[in-house]
From TrEMBL:
InterPro entries: AAA+_ATPase (IPR003593), ABC_transporter-like_ATP-bd (IPR003439), ABC_transporter-like_CS (IPR017871), FeS-cluster_ATPase_SufC (IPR010230), P-loop_NTPase (IPR027417)
Family per record: Belongs to the ABC transporter superfamily. Ycf16 family.
Coiled-coil region(s): none
Cited CDD domains: ABC_FeS_Assembly
SMART domains given in the database record: AAA
Lineage of the organism: Bacteria, Pseudomonadati, Pseudomonadota, Betaproteobacteria, Burkholderiales
Keywords: ATP-binding, Cell membrane, Membrane, Nucleotide-binding
Domain spans labelled ABC transporter: 8-252
Pfam families to which the protein is assigned, alphabetical: ABC_tran (PF00005)
UniProt-recorded name of the protein: Fe-S cluster assembly ATPase SufC
KW Membrane (keyword) present: yes
Taxonomic superkingdom: Bacteria
Length: 256
């Protein structure tokens, strides 16, 4: 792989969920440090793309390829994809009863550090950085000692996803409606964190319909997904047109 090659390369990806083909053929390139916004009507396959790339067992890739740097993503189990530098924030982050938040994140962080050839982070150093990250994201420190997402509000769950993102510092992050349930301060925290990590080389695929946040993120590319395929590629003006006219009219305009 040459230095000029995109960080993420997806070619003709087809994904089935149960008996239904959700993604028919998706191809895209995402360079290091780039930000791609993915838009589409409900059921168009946006979340399916993220789940399939992350290796969720309910999302079966039946054709195509996906590479992250030199790694063949589709040939790796889910945990190895994370170790290779892939991060996925869930649209609805689940509870993990009985597992403390700080232990969960530190275990994930040290697994990633091991894959990068780094020494594991001890409990003291981790807790210091986790507390600092939580403060920046408006997440109470007490959440670090509680079971993962148990009793968290919607906004707190999303902030907890952002905390994981900030500490893991992945090569590629897929954020699935990270703004959902967030207040104004939460959206600001998303934008600031994304900008900081992009400056360090992290690439992003952001699924969102929230135009104000999309404009603040300043994406390099905006994609519209329709019926399992990328129907349009554009810039911020494509997002503005979709916000103004809706997906049905955007599709009709593209066909015309």
């Amino acid at each position: 792989m040459t230095s000029s090659s995109p960080l993420l390369q997806v070619r003709d990806l087809r994904v089935d969920v149960g008996e239904r083909t959700v993604l028919r053929s998706v191809s895209l390139d995402v360079p290091a440090g780039a930000l791609v916004v993915l838009m589409g009507a409900n059921g168009s396959g946006k979340s399916t793309l993220g789940m399939a790339l992350a290796g969720h067992p309910n999302y079966q890739v039946t054709a195509g390829s996906a590479r992250l740097g030199d790694a063949d993503l589709l040939g790796l189990p889910a945990h190895e994809r994370a170790r290779a530098g892939l991060f996925l924030s869930f649209q609805s982050p689940p509870d993990v009863p009985g597992v403390k938040n700080n232990l969960f994140i530190r275990t994930a962080l040290n697994a990633v550090r091991e894959a990068r050839g780094l020494e594991p982070q001890d409990a003291f150093d981790f807790l210091s950085s986790a507390k600092q990250g939580a403060k920046q994201l408006g997440l109470p420190e007490a959440m670090l000692g509680r079971p993962v997402n148990e009793g968290f509000s919607g906004g707190e769950r999303k902030r907890n996803e952002l905390l994981q993102l900030s500490l893991l510092q992945p090569r590629l992050a897929l954020l699935d409606e990270i703004d959902s349930g967030m207040d104004v301060d939460g959206v600001r925290a998303v934008v600031e964190l994304v900008q900081r990590l992009r400056a360090q080389g992290t690439a992003f695929i952001v699924i969102s319909h929230y135009l104000q946040m999309i404009e603040q993120l300043q994406p390099d590319t905006v994609l519209r997904l329709d019926q399992g395929c990328i129907a349009e590629t554009g810039d911020i003006e494509l997002a503005r047109r979709i916000a103004r006219t809706g997906f049905a009219r955007a599709a009709a305009t593209a066909e015309a």
